[in-house]
Amino acid sequence: MKEQYGKEVARRLLLPRAKRKEVLRDLEEAFASAAEHGESEQQVIDRLGTPEEFAAAMNEQLGVPQECFLRRSRRLAVLFFVLTALLLAAAVADLWRDHLLEVRLPSVGIIGGADGPTHILLSAAPGIDPAILLFLLAAILAAAGLRQLLRCRRTRKK
Amino acid sequence: MTEKYVQQFKKGSLEMILLCLIARRETYGYEIISELNRRGADILGYAREGTIYPILYRLQEAGLIRCRLAPATANGGQKKYYALTEQGRETLSEMAVFWQVYTACVNGFLADLEDDAAARSVAGEAGEEEA
């Protein structure tokens, strides 16, 4: 129950990272100390109010103004998406270059007598293709951008 | 109707009350909240973490209190113990002096009001006797 409570609060806290960590730590201590004094989790929750109420009190007392928070989230989202686009472009360019090389290779690549199977073996070696890395990075950045956008929407709903 | 005004009084004095509690001995969040509720829940309002924590954070940021984390004996976690800083001690004693002057001044206004009411009722009785 208290884990669920903590998660619900964490989801709604709009605080600078350090402050947010502190609030969540103190919330944990509130439950632990109460248990030590024979209070049940339900009693603590009755005092704290709903996770929405507790988080709102913290945001109101300690948070940066909602407008600033929204603006920052939006900016971060845009930045992440731009980086995603750049990485995707780089990945595609890399694939395209590989493709060009592959097309050209049969005519050029007979150097040293390399035949078909050797070439396929090389290009199929995992972890070597930078395009895969670029795609992965792009996916991570896209996820980060989406997270910021979702946070914006959640903030605005309140 | 009065609720709104009473709220303002409470808001102004809660910081000083917290400093008083912490000044007596090193203490932690849960103890502060239980002590507040034991002594003054019906007057100060029921103290909750959501009200008290932000004040503690602000007092700490202002350098009036400091905290240290110590392992809690009963559970595996840690407890945050608050203590007054030197600056906090000075501020508290200045606040205490001001509070005395302040309440005396406010009480003076209230006393005037009571005097007026008493004078009116005396005058009223005198009028009745004459009639």
Q: Which consecutive residue ranges of chain B, at least 5 long each, have pLDDT under 50?
A: none
Please state the structural category of chain B.
Answer: alpha+beta
Tell me the total number of β-strands of chain A. 0
User: How many domain units of chain A?
Assistant: 2
Please, how many helices of chain B? 4
What is the name of the CATH superfamily of chain B? Winged helix-like DNA-binding domain superfamily/Winged helix DNA-binding domain
Strand pairing plus helix content of chain A: what structural class?
Answer: mainly alpha
Task: Write the CATH fold name of chain B.
Answer: Arc Repressor Mutant, subunit A
Percent helix range of chain A: over 70%
Characteristics:
heterodimer; A: 2 domains; B: 131 residues; alpha+beta; Arc Repressor Mutant, subunit A; 3-stranded antiparallel β-sheet; 74% helix
Protein architecture, described:
The complex is a heterodimer of chains A (158) and B (131). Chain A has 158 residues and is an all-alpha fold. Chain A folds into two domains: 2-62, no CATH class; 66-157. Chain A is 83% helix and 0% strand. The longest helix of chain A is centred in the middle third of the chain and has 43 residues, at 66-108. Chain A is elongated. In chain A, 16% of the residues are buried. Chain B has one domain: Arc Repressor Mutant, subunit A (Orthogonal Bundle). Chain B has a three-stranded antiparallel beta sheet. The A-B interface holds A 19, 22-23, 25-30, 32-37, 47-49, 53-54, 57-58, 61-62 and B 28-31, 34, 46, 48-51, 53-54, 57, 72, 74-75, 77-80.
